[in-house]
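Structure first, sequence second, as always.
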């Protein structure tokens, strides 16, 4: 078996070794008396042509007395001579002449080799000597029992003397060391056993430990292992080649840490999470522990203080999740290194124990770095080493500053976002109804769940609008987008819907007008726009009339309501075609429902039924299943519905409005059909007074009779066909004069002149009633007035 199968040209014997060199023997007269085969090969002269002849004839130039002096010398001499080859060219050779004396006979042994070959061998020898004495690469030889045999000077320096380890196991060299490369056996004994067994070298293993010559500082070596065999191929042991790559390894770690920091720190827009992200990135590569101290104002999203003394009134962050998060007050004396770092805006290294620590505490090193962003001090970061208390070097300080800068930007962004989010949340809550008024027509319950704070405040809204005749308007809507713009847009649209609803427009007409307003405000040259969010507005508006149980609704790109009737059956209402607001392309259509007493209707935004993990159909089925419990109290139903939302942060606002319908029976409603005859006005007054007496509202008889008289008189005068008079007793209002006729002209309130014979009727109605108005129907119009019940 070849000892060096991959290095066939390597020769470890000297060219002047007798086993390789050209050799000749000269007698006392300088004649050749012996000639080796190697000499014949070197000069190309067979022995018959050389033996017995003077040796000086082998020289390319006359040596003069020099050769004779060499031969008469009593000790070995060496020289560089030019020899003549058999074909005539000159061979420059290194020659050694050694005198021999035996029984009075004198002779000289001459050994020669080409000078170039000797110089090459000497260079190899110098290289081996350099590796043993001067190289920074550690070389250690182990026997087959993996015990130390020899080490070069570099190994000797690292071990603080190799002699004390000769004959000891390899594990004794670095007892606390470990391999940090994971693609080979995990410990050194197994690595060596594998190399001895297979003969395959293992290269580039990274090993971390503390050298006996430097037990304080942790080092990293790149180690390779090779098997040693003898001339027969039998294992002699193995040798380890190690190179200290601590600085290079730490530079690579710093680079990878910065890359990881760029991906992880500051992505959450949350002050607490950003502090935890900094600790996650820096531990354990840079420090064993990271402490983040912030002013309360920064945690709460306010501007950091600028006048307070550095180090005062800080809070130390605890916990890496919102559930674990907590704070504890911390303060630094003016003379402390922490206060110095905050005052100078520069990092400060402190290898000594912190103030207040016991002297017997474990030794550690601290690095204090201020958190700076936008020329403001946001707090302080402490990088602490306990397990590896090496002081922070210049490169590590630079790395810590870069990490602190990234964290400061993330914390400042989170602080500003928290401030804006809080303002947007206040704005949104102020724009949503604080409470819904109690109505005879419906019982309501609602839930509003804002999106996760990292997403931002959304643009969901809902409302209940009392209308004439004990009717109610119900609306839900959603503005695409998040933030202050979405909240402001939501507020404007909700106010617009409420204003249009009070005009007693039917749902399709209301959405048509709202669509026109949104489209107009979204034009590029509009002076006051609703912002880009308005282009994604969906809205649903419904009107419920408790007298007949009739519900009419229309949708602008919004999910239809889900209805659970009194029997418990649940169905999704028929979809109403209609695009989102602002497009102005297709008309909106009304959908009419007849609801039994006690039906539950669910109005909702897509955040209730849709998220990233489930589609909208699954969400609708989930909500419909909850509504099968429609006999439960509405508050309980709301809780059940919201509890079915997938766990975790909400990507969108979730708004749910549940309505349980009621019908007003004969004890609350009185209808009277009157012929178009002026004589019937007196009958209308009489019937009104009688009905009020039945309801126990006799105190309103005079006022009510006056209003009825004026409204019925106007209807008979300006309309044709029968006149319908409806009296409705509500909770606090008496809708006593719903007068319907077939005329399409609206009455107008005006101030009559002294000489006018008419025009004072509506003026009187407006003065004595709480409110009045007109709404249009398919057959004409309805004039109504309401009186407050005392």
């Amino acid at each position: 078996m070849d000892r060096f199968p991959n290095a066939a040209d390597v020769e470890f014997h000297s060219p002047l070794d007798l086993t390789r060199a050209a050799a000749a023997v000269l007698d006392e007269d300088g004649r050749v008396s012996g000639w080796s085969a190697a000499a014949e090969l070197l000069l190309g002269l067979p022995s018959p042509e050389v033996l017995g002849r003077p040796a000086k004839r082998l020289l390319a130039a006359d040596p003069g007395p020099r050769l004779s002096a060499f031969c008469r010398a009593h000790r070995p001499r060496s020289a560089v001579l030019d020899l003549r080859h058999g074909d005539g060219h000159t061979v420059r050779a290194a020659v050694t002449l050694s005198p021999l004396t035996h029984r009075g006979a004198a002779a000289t042994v001459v050994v020669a080799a080409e000078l170039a070959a000797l110089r090459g061998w000497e260079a190899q020898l110098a290289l081996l000597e350099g590796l043993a004495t001067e190289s920074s690469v550690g070389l250690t030889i182990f026997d087959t029992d993996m015990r130390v045999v020899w080490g070069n000077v570099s190994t000797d320096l690292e071990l603080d003397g190799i002699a004390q380890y000769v004959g000891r196991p390899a594990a004794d060299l670095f007892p606390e060391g470990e391999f940090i490369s994971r693609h080979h056996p995990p410990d050194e004994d197994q690595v060596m056993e594998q190399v001895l067994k297979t003969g395959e070298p293992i290269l580039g293993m990274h090993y971390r430990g503390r050298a006996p010559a430097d037990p304080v500082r942790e080092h990293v070596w790149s180690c390779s292992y090779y098997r040693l065999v003898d001339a027969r191929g039998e294992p002699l042991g193995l040798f380890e080649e190690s190179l200290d790559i601590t600085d290079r390894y730490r530079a690579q770690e710093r680079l990878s840490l910065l890359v990881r920091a760029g991906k992880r720190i500051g992505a959450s827009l949350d002050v607490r999470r950003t502090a935890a992200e900094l600790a996650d990135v820096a531990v354990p590569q840079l420090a064993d522990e990271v402490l983040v101290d912030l002013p309360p104002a920064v945690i709460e999203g306010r501007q950091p203080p600028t006048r307070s003394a550095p180090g005062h009134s800080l809070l130390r962050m605890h916990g890496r999740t919102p559930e674990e998060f907590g704070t504890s007050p911390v303060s630094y004396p003016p003379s402390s290194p922490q206060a110095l770092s905050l005052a100078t805006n520069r990092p400060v290294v402190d290898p000594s124990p912190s103030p207040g620590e016991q002297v017997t505490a474990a030794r550690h090193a601290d690095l204090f770095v201020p958190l700076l962003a936008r020329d403001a001090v946001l707090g302080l970061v402490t990088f602490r080493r306990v397990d590896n208390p090496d002081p922070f070097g210049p490169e590590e300080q630079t790395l810590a500053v870069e990490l602190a800068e990234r964290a400061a930007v993330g914390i400042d962004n989170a602080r500003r976002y928290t401030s804006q989010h809080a303002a947007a949340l206040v704005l949104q809550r102020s724009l949503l109804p604080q409470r819904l008024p109690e109505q005879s027509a419906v019982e309501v319950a609602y839930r509003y769940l804002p999106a996760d704070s990292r997403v931002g405040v959304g643009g969901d809204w809902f409302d209940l609008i009392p209308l004439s005749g004990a009717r109610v308007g119900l609306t839900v809507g959603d503005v695409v987008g998040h933030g202050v713009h979405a909240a402001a847009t939501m507020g404007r649209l909700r106010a617009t819907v409420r204003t249009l609803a009070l005009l007693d427009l039917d749902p399709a007409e209301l959405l048509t007008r709202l669509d026109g307003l949104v489209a107009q405000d979204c034009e590029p040259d509009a002076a006051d726009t609703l912002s880009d969010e308005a282009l994604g507005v969906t809205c649903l508006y419904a009107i419920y009339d408790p007298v007949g149980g009739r519900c009419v609704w229309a949708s602008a790109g919004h999910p239809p309501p889900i209805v659970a009737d009194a029997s418990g059956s649940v169905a999704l209402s028929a979809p109403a075609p209609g695009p989102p607001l602002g497009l102005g392309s297709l008309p909106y259509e009304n959908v009419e429902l007849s609801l039994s007493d006690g039906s539950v209707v669910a109005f909702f935004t897509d955040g209730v039924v849709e998220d990233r993990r489930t589609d909208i159909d699954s969400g609708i089925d989930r909500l419909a299943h909850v509504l099968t419990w429609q006999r439960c109290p509405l508050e309980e139903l709301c809780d059940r519905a919201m509890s079915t939302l997938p766990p975790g942060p909400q990507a969108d606002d979730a708004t749910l409005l549940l309505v349980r319908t009621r019908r007003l029976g004969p004890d609350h409603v009185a209808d009277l059909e009157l012929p178009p005859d002026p004589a019937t006005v007196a009958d209308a007054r009489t019937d009104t007074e009688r009905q009020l007496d039945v309801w126990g509202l006799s105190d309103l008889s005079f006022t009510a009779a006056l209003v009825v008289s004026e409204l019925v008189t106007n209807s008979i005068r300006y309309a044709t066909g029968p006149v319908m008079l409806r009296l409705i007793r509500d909770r606090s209002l008496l809708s006593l004069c719903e007068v319907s006729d077939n005329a399409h002209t609206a009455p107008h309130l005006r101030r009559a002149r002294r000489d006018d014979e008419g025009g004072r009727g509506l003026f009187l109605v407006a003065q004595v009633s709480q409110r009045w108005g007109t709404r249009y129907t398919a057959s004409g119009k309805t004039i109504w007035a309401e009186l407050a019940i005392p």
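Margin note: The chain has 18 helices and 32 strands.
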